[in-house]
Amino acid sequence: MRTLIAFAALAAGVYLIYLGYQRQESFAGKADKTFTTIGNKFDGGPRVTTEAEYYAAGAVLTIGGVVGLGIIRR
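-> C-alpha cells emitted (74 positions)
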C-alpha cells in the first residue's frame, strides 16, 4: 500500500510540474507573469505566478514519492 501511495505521489508531482511548464509557455502564463511583475513593483506585495505554485507543489510531491519508493534513503 505504501508503494502505491508513493508511486501516486510521484506521478502527481511529475504531472504538476508538466502543468506548470505548459502554463508558463501559454499566453495566459505570460500575461500572469507580466501582471504579477507589475503588481510586485506597484506595492511590493509577495505575489507568485500560478506556474510557480505548480512547480512548488510538484517538487514536494515528487520528492515525497521518491523518498517513499526508497530511491533516496532518508
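The radius of gyration is 16 Å.
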